[in-house]
Design a protein that fits this description.
The chain is an alpha/beta fold. The protein has 2 domains: about 200 residues, Alpha-Beta Complex (Spore Coat Polysaccharide Biosynthesis Protein SpsA, Chain A), CATH 3.90.550.10; about 160 residues, 2-C-methyl-D-erythritol 2,4-cyclodiphosphate synthase (60s Ribosomal Protein L30, Chain: A), CATH 3.30.1330. The chain is about 30% helix and about 30% strand. Strands 1, 4, 5, 6, 7, 10, 11 and 12 form an 8-stranded mixed sheet that branches. A 5-stranded mixed sheet has the order 16-13-19-17-18. Strands 2-3 form a two-stranded antiparallel ribbon. Strand 17, helix 10 and strand 18 form a beta-alpha-beta unit. The longest helix is centred in the C-terminal third of the chain and has 16 residues. It is elongated, with a radius of gyration of 27 Å. It starts with a strand and ends with a strand. The relative contact order is 0.12. Bound molecules: zinc ion.
Length: about 375
């Protein structure tokens, strides 16, 4: 069985009141529609993802993603996508509205497993509201227990849907309508409350974001004849930080904070100091596997707060440069990073300018 995921992103979103169609607004570091694309990829259920859009989409390098132009109405966009994959021998097709970024991969898998038995599988919700139904000017009571509110993604046997879709030329709001109108069986499964459709700007506030926090600490001894690196930049000073790497305490503490927030152990586990291949490694290079983990697991950096603990150099003199450097290295905005300098009243090793320490708290967010 091979599956294709069709993402309908051609809607105009009149109720959203923005120049940018809602499916393209930047939400949690990426366009809204990309949340659905990334989940489809992560589920590993699909050989191809077709995005139907009337707005040009650039920068898609993944070969398993195709972008095609949509129609005026939703059903026409869906029809175009089904025709586009006509000769690709897909057994099943999933159709999803880009304005619903909140479905879970678990739901995709549940839909998929039901496809073994059924030709149409559709998620639905019930309602707690009392319901009425208006026919012309008469309003009648409706038993809410008999009411099904359908969502997407919906999935279907490709051939059956293709035939039904090509026969249709009326406005419909989902593909389940075609099956029901033609007296074909639909398997309804429980949908997800969180998988609501983003129609207005206030809907965006309903999106659940989970927060994760991590703490990092590092200290290195200062030694002569070594360059001092802090936050990825070279700082003129009488000594540099001793260590296996360039001893950049800021970056090391940030790495530990990030690993902590992701619950992925610590910098020492990732870069054992007895491994010669890490000898003299520049700390900015140590960040790349961490940033990859952040991206792969769907996290994004919310903010980073840094205490650099040293008598000298004066943090105020280098603050802006260090923040610019870190924002480039971590690919975040400068206003997401704060750097504070803290002296130690000339106490101990740090007070005698024989060591520099750093502590960091980071917060990561992840789309629930
Ligand atoms: Zn270190």
């Amino acid at each position: 069985m091979t599956n294709c995921f069709i993402l309908l992103a051609a809607g105009k979103g009149k109720r959203f009141k923005s120049n940018n169609p809602k499916q393209f607004i930047n939400y949690i570091n990426k366009p809204l529609f990309m949340h659905s694309v990334d989940k489809a990829i992560k589920s590993k259920l699909f050989k191809l993802i077709v995005i139907v859009s009337n707005t040009p989409i650039k920068n898609i390098k993944d070969k398993s993603i195709k972008v095609i132009k949509g129609g005026r109405e939703r059903y026409q966009s869906s029809q175009k996508a089904l025709n586009f994959i006509k000769n690709m021998k897909f057994t099943n097709v999933f159709i999803h509205d880009a304005a619903r970024p909140n479905f879970s991969i678990k739901l995709l898998k549940k839909l998929n497993s039901n496809l073994k038995k059924y030709k149409a599988v559709v998620p639905y919700l019930t309602t707690n509201n009392s319901t009425k139904y208006k026919i012309k000017n008469k309003i009648q009571n409706l038993n809410r227990e008999n009411l099904l509110l359908t969502q997407t993604p919906q999935c279907f046997n490709y051939k059956t849907l293709f035939n039904l879709s090509n026969l249709n030329n009326t406005k419909i709001t989902d593909e389940a309508t075609l099956f029901l109108d033609n007296n074909k069986k639909v398997k309804f499964i429980k949908g997800e409350e969180n998988n609501f459709k983003i129609t207005t700007k206030t809907d965006l506030k309903k999106i659940i974001v989970k927060n994760f926090y991590g703490i990092g600490f590092d200290i290195h001894r200062l030694i002569k004849n070594k360059k001092l690196y802090l936050g990825g930049i070279k700082i003129p000073f009488h000594s540099g930080l001793q260590g296996h790497s360039d001893g950049d305490v800021i970056i090391h503490a940030i790495i530990d904070g990030l690993l902590g927030a992701m619950r992925k152990k610590d910098i020492g586990t990732l870069y054992p100091s007895n491994k010669s291949r890490f000898k003299n490694i520049r700390s900015p290079n140590m960040l790349s596997p961490i940033l990859k983990k952040i991206k792969d697991e769907g996290y994004f950096i919310n903010n980073i707060d840094i205490n650099l603990i040293c008598e000298r150099p004066k943090v105020s003199k280098y603050r802006d440069k260090i923040i610019v450097s870190l924002s480039n290295l971590l690919n975040v905005n400068e206003n997401q990073i704060n750097l504070k300098g803290k002296t130690v009243e000339k106490l101990g090793l740090i007070g005698k300018e024989e060591a520099i320490a750093c502590e960091v708290i980071v917060s990561l967010n992840r789309y629930a």
